[in-house]
Amino acid sequence: MRLCRFxxxxxxxxxxxxxxxxxxxxxxxxxxxxxxxxxxxLIANLTALRPRIESLLDSAPRxxxxxxxxxxxxxxxxxxxxxPVNYRKHLExxxxxxxxxxxxxxxxxxxxxxxxxATSSLVGPAEGVALRHLERRxxxxxxxxxxxxxxxxxxxxxxxxxxxxxxxxxLDMTVRGPEERSLRKSVDSFTVLGPWLVTADAIGDPxxxxxxxxxxxxxxxxxxxxxxxxxxxELIEFATSFYTVHPGDVLLTGTPEGxxxxxxxxxxxxxxxxxxxxxxxxxxx
Length: 285
Fold this sequence. Notes:
With 285 residues, the protein is α+β, with helices and mostly antiparallel strands. It has helices at residues 41-44, 46-56, 88-96, 98-101, 109-112, 181-184, 232-240; strands spanning 2-6, 10-15, 18-21, 62-64, 80-82, 115-117, 122-123, 129-131, 138-140, 142-148, 164-172, 174-175, 191-199, 210-215, 218-224, 250-252, 260-261, 267-272, 276-284. It has two domains: 2-67, no CATH class; 80-284, Fumarylacetoacetase-like, C-terminal domain (Fumarylacetoacetate hydrolase, domain 2).
């Protein structure tokens, strides 16, 4: 199942090049009073939503995908977890490029661990990337994003996939510089998720997916998730040894080699096998 969030927070069921408006299914979500939950209500109730969505499909209004504004498919992640230098060739690239490492040691992910991105950096493909520090190098990084569907702490890798609800494409944009990753990667609009959620049962093997990112038609990044240093299950085991994860939390699994700068006016096209493609415009903030 492919689900998108579009226009003014409508819920869509994606089929081919069209979307069916199934926003009425949201009426089964529980209403929350203050204090609000730490999870995303849609993701937390995805299992219950599926039959309700399916019951609406025959009568749901159908619109062309090209005519809707795609937002981040996860509206309220409690946290965004990210895996740095998690492809071997990108590790080598980061160590060899002063524009990336800024005279700082680039250590293996096993030594430096994960980092957090501000949830305020989250946007969808239609919102695009707004560059704020134009005097610096700003880079693109395509990543497979895993969306947590079930709370967990100290999750063993053998059960990690039980905690994943869906996958989508992620762009982990970054300002290069000497500061910590969390600061440089948490600029407003620097976490792009889209174009929609693909439920885990529809993906097959997430450990063997092709990724590709092009800038203005030029392919910059191309790899396969089999090249991850720490696989998805290992990342979840690692993350949950420090944090409790909740439905709607997003795990960015790492970017392959080929990262490079973008400028206002550029257009990024990111593709991941089994998920689809999203186009993202870059502008000055």
